[in-house]
Amino acid sequence: MNDFVGTGTLVRLALRRDRLLIPIWIVVFVISAAGSVKASIDLYSDQNALVEAARTSNASPALVSLYGRIFDESSLGEVSLFKLTAFGALLVGLLAGILVVRHTRTEEESGRLELLSAGVLGRYAALTAALIVSAGTVIVLGLVTALALMGSGLDTKGSFAFGLMWAGAGLAFAGVGAVTAQVTESARAANGLTAVVLGVAYVLRAIGDSSADGSTQWVSWLSPIGWSQQVRAYAGDRIVVLLIPLVFLVVLIAAATALIRRRDLGAGLVPPCPGPPQAAASLRSPLALAWRLHRGSFYAWGFAFLLLGLLVGNIASNVDGFVTSDSAKEMVQKLGGVEGITDAFLATEMGVMGLLASAFGIQAALRLRSEETALRAEPLLATGVTRARWLGSHVLMALLGTGALILVAGLGSGISSGASLGNMGRQVPRMLGAAAVQLPAIWLVTALVVILFGFAPKLVTGGWVLYGVFLLIGQFGEIFNLPQWMINLSPYGHTPRLPGGDFSVTPVLWLTAIAAALTVAGFATFRRRDIG
Questions:
Q1: What is the rounded distance in angstroms from the CA atom of residue 424 to the CA atom of residue 453?
Q2: Which of 21, 176, 198 has the alpha carbon at shortest distance from 101?
Q3: What is the pLDDT of residue 97?
Q4: CA dist 186 to 18, 92, 189, 424, Å?
Q5: Domain assignments of the chain as residue spans, ordered by start
Q6: What digits encode the pLDDT tens for the residues 183-197?
Q7: Residue 429, preceding bond cis, omega within 30 degrees?
Q8: With contact defined as beta carbons under 8 Å apart, do 285 and 380 qualify?
Q9: Residue 362's closest CA among 458, 459, 452, 446?
């Protein structure tokens, strides 16, 4: 039998399953890039302000480590998109890797691929289909982004270089996902390994960029994200560099296909370690089991949030130098909703961290559905564990986990900004308060996943769709002058803008009440439906 037979069928199946998720995330990336250009045009009214902002950014080690270096300080395109060059490549790579794992290892873990293999399905069909879907997604994303940037007024060559740079990063990490899917028996572990590779790549890029004398610049060339940055869109447009991720992808595909031949269907190259025959006393409750299942990802997210908080707080001490023109200050104040430019920056970045914490809440709540479809929930519920206790254990992990993450970010930014500004005793409680007010909106988004799980479990991934819509409205609603009723649809639009802004308890109470009502409704509907 042909090793690739059935590939077309699996491609159509994957596209049907992701018919909402893929378009939504393409739109999110495209609007993010176009919105960043529009905001920059409003920020920098003249060339001198543009060059001064670029030079200030390059002079800040924290900014260079976080976003990368601006190669052409007079280029509107590069200054507009420098925050989305390396960081955007990271996110596109994450999307591509997750798509490959989703349609390979996840299918094996659930047993669906084994059922399909009982028919006419080649050994490499699943991997090939997943790579086609992932590669097609990032290529379309890159091309549509290029067209959107051209429509925003940027030049054609630079726009295509930027779009193809994103696509190149996605292709590289699609290959990484193809390899990690062969290593472990768990989709979560495969995604975790992909995230680790992404993190290492980002750190290598940061080390190479932050070198003051250029002595470690070569380290960036060890990173797929560094390759994307070296395309230098709008600053030379070195599209030939994209041959490197293409070669990298071919090598990883060859490695993945070789690994497939060395393992059985459903097994990984690294077998899981068997646990003790009896659980410890600390695991003899649904809540303890939920903590055991979520703790690995929580620790990883917690470290990332602490690092982000420290970086944001450090950057805040220099934000006055970065934003110099009156129009730039007015725009940042508008986004942050406060008068002080430093507080406006911190409020805006804390809102972004609230969005990121929501992603953890969605991921943690979605674990309910994966436990159910993998038939691990039913044996638990066949014992003395009630549905409410099982559901509540995972929901509690999602709610407490998001709370801990955003507070860790607030603590890190308070310590860092307080140390830089010389008022740590004041900054730490202010930033913890700014973090805490993000929680009602975060919990509401998590509660939407809970009610979807209880009422319509097959639509539970729609939580990501709603999240993408809220993200677009919250980040670009005012920039694109959307009507107020549409902006009000996003729970993040009702969060008080702290530090420095006016605090009103009314929206906080309303968001909390709605989140609680949705969560209770999710519990009630779950109790009345069949498992599976």
A1: 43
A2: 176
A3: 92
A4: 21, 22, 5, 43
A5: 1-270, 283-532
A6: 887 777 788 788 888
A7: no
A8: no
A9: 446
For residue range 354-366, list pLDDT tens digits in order.
888 998 899 889 8
Task: For residue 532, give every residue at least 6 positions away whose Cβ sits within 8 Å of its Cβ, in sequence order, or none.
Answer: 372, 373, 375, 378
User: From the CB of residue 513, how many other CB atoms can be counted at a distance below 10 Å?
Assistant: 12
Question: What whole-number distance in Å separates Cα of residue 242 and Cα of residue 392?
Answer: 47
HEC readout, 146-182 = HHHHHHCCCCHHHHHHHHHHHHHHHHHHHHHHHHHHH
Contact 428, 414 (CB under 8 A): yes
The sign of the torsion formed by the CA atoms of 385, 389, 391, 396 equals negative
Helices (H), 269-423: 286-316, 319-322, 326-336, 341-373, 377-381, 387-421
Name the residue among 250, 226, 247 with its Cα closest to residue 238.
226
Structure tokens at 45: 């009214």
Question: Which structure tokens are listed for 474?
Answer: 């919250």
Residues whose CB is less than 8 angstroms from the CB of residue 35 and which lie 6 or more positions away in sequence, other chains included: 475, 476, 479, 480
Give the separation between CA 52 and CA 82, rounded to whole angstroms: 15
Q: Would you say how long the chain is, in residues?
A: 532
Distance in angstroms (rounded) separating the CA atoms of residues 191 and 256: 15
36 token code pair:
């960043």
CA–CA gap between residue 368 and residue 169 (Å, rounded): 31
Q: 100: helix, coil or strand?
A: helix
Q: What are φ and ψ of residue 281, in 5° steps?
A: -60, -30
Query: What is the C-alpha separation between 341 and 332, in angstroms, rounded?
Result: 7
**pLDDT 10s digits, 288-340:** 888 888 887 888 888 888 888 888 787 766 665 555 555 555 555 554 444 46
Residue labelled with tokens 């993010």: 32
The whole-angstrom separation of Cα 83 and Cα 60 is 14
Q: Measuring CA to CA, how many Å separate 25 from each of 175, 197, 240?
A: 20, 22, 27
Residue 212 per-residue DSSP state: S
Measured distance CA(315)–CA(269) in Å, rounded? 43
- The DSSP symbol for 472 reads H
**Phi–psi pair at 233, nearest 5 degrees:** -60, 135
Alpha-carbon span 350 to 338, nearest angstrom: 13
114, 126, 124: which is closest to 3 by C-alpha? 124
Burial class (CB in 10 A: 0-12, 13-18, 19+), 112: middle
The model scores a pTM over 0.85: no
Q: What angle do CA 413, 414, 418 make, to 5 degrees?
A: 115
